[in-house]
Write a structure and sequence with these properties.
279 residues; alpha/beta; Rossmann fold; 12 helices; 16% strand
């Protein structure tokens, strides 16, 4: 019997392999037998088959990185992203516009029956309620026009992070439909608070009381490997009929919200109250 979790004989590309979930994902893929080709703005510590520097804010850099890659791939892993410590415009340019352009650049190199998995966030859990504004922006293909729209809609964009993840979740499900004819699967994960180097950035803008609010019901942060393994699963043959899923990887948080066990608005209100207390 074949091992549906194995990546033996498979060739994959991963962006965001310098640290955190992306680094953990790359290491797991190598353990499972994949030929892993990494891309990031910083060199990766992982022993990859190849590494190429790429800046997701720069579409010319993306085109050069993907265009310079020879041959096809079986799976694409989108693990790059930035936090709200960056300007809102840059957050959306990396977390959505860059990821979208990057992924579309790979489509012709992705084999029929292949798979795409992206890291989104629980911050984008409300994307279904914002479809009109998200679809309006997503209809813009031109980079300069998209940037102009973002500049003209500061209230919708806010700090950029939630907006970018709402976009990524919506786009994931649209792409799953669009690529179904080629039997290419497209999924995303929605991680809860995770212990990665990016956590330092989140702590610059949100006190621990806020970050801890997203750790219920288990009461702790996830590890990078606990978030990486679901990505590996989604692009494996074990998930060969799974597509268009925005999968919460949160040990029950969104499930609790869905059945009324947790009220996110109340939890955040309480967390802000705790954070405001003198230490």
């Amino acid at each position: 019997m074949s091992d549906v979790f194995s990546y033996s004989g498979k060739r994959v590309a991963i962006v965001g392999c310098f640290s955190g979930m992306g680094e953990a994902c790359a290491r797991r893929l190598i353990e499972l037998g994949a030929e892993v080709h990494g891309f990031d703005i910083k060199p990766s510590p992982v022993n990859l088959a190849s590494f190429t520097q790429v800046d997701l804010k720069d579409w010319t850099s993306i085109d050069a990185a993907v265009g310079g890659f020879s041959g096809g791939i079986d799976a694409l892993f989108n693990c790059a992203g930035v936090a709200q410590t960056f300007p809102a415009l840059d957050v959306v340019r990396v977390n959505f516009l860059g990821i979208r352009h990057w992924t579309e650049a790979w489509i012709d190199k992705l084999k029929d029956g292949g798979a795409i998995a992206s890291i989104s966030s629980l911050a984008g859990m409300g994307y279904a309620m914002r479809q009109p504004i998200l679809r309006e922006f997503m209809a813009i293909a031109d980079e300069a026009e998209a940037i102009s729209w973002l500049t003209a809609h500061p209230d919708d964009v806010s700090d950029g992070y939630t907006f970018s993840k709402d976009l990524l979740n919506t786009w994931t499900q649209l792409m799953a439909v669009k690529l179904a004819a080629r039997q290419i699967r497209v999924n995303a994960t929605l991680p809860s608070s995770t212990l990665t180097p990016m956590m330092d950035d989140f702590r610059k803008i949100a006190p621990d009381a806020i970050l801890n609010a997203y750790t219920v019901p288990i009461g702790r942060f996830a590890t990078a490997s606990e978030q990486a393994d679901p990505l590996v699963f989604l692009n494996s043959d074990a998930a060969r009929f799974v597509s268009g899923i925005c999968l919460p990887v949160d040990h029950g948080f969104m499930g609790g919200v869905a059945v009324g066990e947790f009220d996110p608005a109340k939890m955040i209100e309480d967390a802000f109250a705790v954070a405001a207390q003198p230490s």
